[in-house]
Amino acid sequence: MINAIVLIQADNGRIPETAQALADTDGVAEVYSCAGDVDLIAVVRVRDFERIAEVVTGRIDKTPGVLRTVTHIAFKSYSSAEVEAGFSLGE
């Protein structure tokens, strides 16, 4: 499974509707409304890289209310237990 994190700038007047439309998009696992430099963060989970392009540029970028996106592909996932174990090495 390939994971991508999509940072989304959205039209401020349409954030709830945009977030719901994104959440209803096939390939989008989760959508978060957040404070900071971006308005929404979408987590995309798909089986291959071609599908990421299809979901991000074919669907997310065309969703009404989406102004701009930046996509990050995840290489490795760490659970909280793995991260904690990494910090406790040598203790």
From TrEMBL:
Xref: Pfam families: AsnC_trans_reg
SUPFAM superfamilies reported in the protein's UniProt record: Dimeric alpha+beta barrel
Leader sequence segment: none
Domain Transcription regulator AsnC/Lrp ligand binding: 6-76
Matches recorded under InterPro entries: Dimeric_a/b-barrel (IPR011008), Tscrpt_reg_AsnC/Lrp_C (IPR019887)
Identification of the protein by name: Lrp/AsnC ligand binding domain-containing protein
